[in-house]
Amino acid sequence: MALEWADMMLAGGHPSDSTLEARMREHFTQEELVELTYAMGTFIGYGKQIMVLGLEPEGMPLTVIPTPGG
């Protein structure tokens, strides 16, 4: 379920599954959900920065996921 949350963030931040947030709240406290979302957003951002700057290691498989505005 946390991976679904990460996928939703990568896809633009709007859950396509209207029950996802409710299901997340069944398993995570508000504080945990904020921390999880912040951590995911941070690492997604780092990944995008590395790609933009061309710093990804040679030989590393690269998966490009289109995002809105990108």
What is the number of strand segments? Answer: 0
Helix content: 55-70%
Shape: elongated
Strand content: under 5%
Structurally, the number of domains stands at: 1
Order of helices and strands: HHH
The rounded distance between the terminal residues' Cα atoms is: 26 Å
Question: In DSSP terms, counting alpha (H) and pi (I) runs of 4 or more, how many helices?
Answer: 3
Structural class given helices, strands, pairing?
A: mainly alpha
Indicate the mean pLDDT.
86
Largest sheet: none
Low-confidence stretches: none
Supply Rg.
Answer: 14 Å
Walk me through this protein's architecture:
The protein has 70 residues and is mainly alpha-helical. The chain has one domain. It is 57% helix and 0% strand. It contains three helices and no strands. The protein has helices at residues 2-10, 20-27, 30-52. α1 (2-10) packs across α3. The mean pLDDT is 86.
